[in-house]
Amino acid sequence: MGDEPFTERTPRIVNAAKLHRASVRRKTGRFLAEGSNSVISALRHGRVVEVFLTEDALDSFGRDLDSLTDTDNRDGGDRRGVIVHLITDRAAHALSESVTSTGLFALCSTQLVTLDEVVTSGGRVLAVGVETAEPGNAGALVRVADATGTGGVIFAGETVDPQGGKAVRSSAGSLFHLPVARHTSIPEVVDQLREQGYAILATSGDGDVTLDDAAVAADGETPLLAQKVAWLFGNEAHGLGDWQDLADVRVSIPMQGRAESFNLVTAAAVCLYETARVARV
């Protein structure tokens, strides 16, 4: 780090702040991660170009960053090719998309992979967010997939960018733990999954089977959830709509109370957890 912290007018800060726009992220192949979980995960997985942090963030997170950059963050570090820059609070405000900033940011090279890389990754279970519109839900879906041991996540159709600020924060570092792809054609996503032997399951209020039934072997056959499966999870406001017709099996989650349905992330958590549980039995 230099003698003076970077300000909101420093060219590096100005250019990094432009990454709030999806078009700039696509053009540059870079994005911003904010907060200790995301930044430390990015550093551990070698995705960081440089780190920006305030004095307060240095006091809070400096020890955690020491082993991942240089032995002395106050002098900057490049042991892993990562330079650490001290920034002002106003610079942090320019970089942050949250109301209350942690003051810790990483400029990262893109984490997204191709559709082919996800569908051929060998994961037994994959999650597909169909037309996901809310950044927080996109990040939370990645986090749920990571927590349940899901092999990868695909965002299909016209979806939010999973490398946007809120999505990255909501993933709590999980974006860096498993392959994530984005592809605009939902039929192409389903076709490639089917070619790789995945059974396509869709959440539906009036499913062909219940989640309970899908977990049980019928007539000596392997339970549906123990097979190689890809789950389709619909848009927050409209569900899957007609896209559920692309599925091999529509699966409903039995409701115990008076609510009509779960929200997107809760439904994904229930389905992915139950799929992982069946495989362990």
Automatic annotation (TrEMBL):
<dbReference type="InterPro" id="IPR029028">
    <property type="entry name" value="Alpha/beta_knot_MTases"/>
</dbReference>
<keyword id="KW-0489">Methyltransferase</keyword>
<dbReference type="GO" id="GO:0005737">
    <property type="term" value="C:cytoplasm"/>
</dbReference>
<comment type="similarity">
    <text>Belongs to the class IV-like SAM-binding methyltransferase superfamily. RNA methyltransferase TrmH family.</text>
</comment>
<dbReference type="GO" id="GO:0032259">
    <property type="term" value="P:methylation"/>
</dbReference>
<keyword id="KW-0808">Transferase</keyword>
<dbReference type="Pfam" id="PF00588">
    <property type="entry name" value="SpoU_methylase"/>
</dbReference>
<dbReference type="InterPro" id="IPR013123">
    <property type="entry name" value="SpoU_subst-bd"/>
</dbReference>
<dbReference type="GO" id="GO:0003723">
    <property type="term" value="F:RNA binding"/>
</dbReference>
<dbReference type="InterPro" id="IPR029026">
    <property type="entry name" value="tRNA_m1G_MTases_N"/>
</dbReference>
<dbReference type="InterPro" id="IPR051259">
    <property type="entry name" value="rRNA_Methyltransferase"/>
</dbReference>
<dbReference type="GO" id="GO:0006396">
    <property type="term" value="P:RNA processing"/>
</dbReference>
<dbReference type="GO" id="GO:0008173">
    <property type="term" value="F:RNA methyltransferase activity"/>
</dbReference>
<dbReference type="InterPro" id="IPR001537">
    <property type="entry name" value="SpoU_MeTrfase"/>
</dbReference>
<dbReference type="InterPro" id="IPR029064">
    <property type="entry name" value="Ribosomal_eL30-like_sf"/>
</dbReference>
<protein>
    <recommendedName>
        <fullName>RNA 2-O ribose methyltransferase substrate binding domain-containing protein</fullName>
    </recommendedName>
</protein>
<feature type="domain" description="RNA 2-O ribose methyltransferase substrate binding">
    <location>
        <begin position="32"/>
        <end position="114"/>
    </location>
</feature>
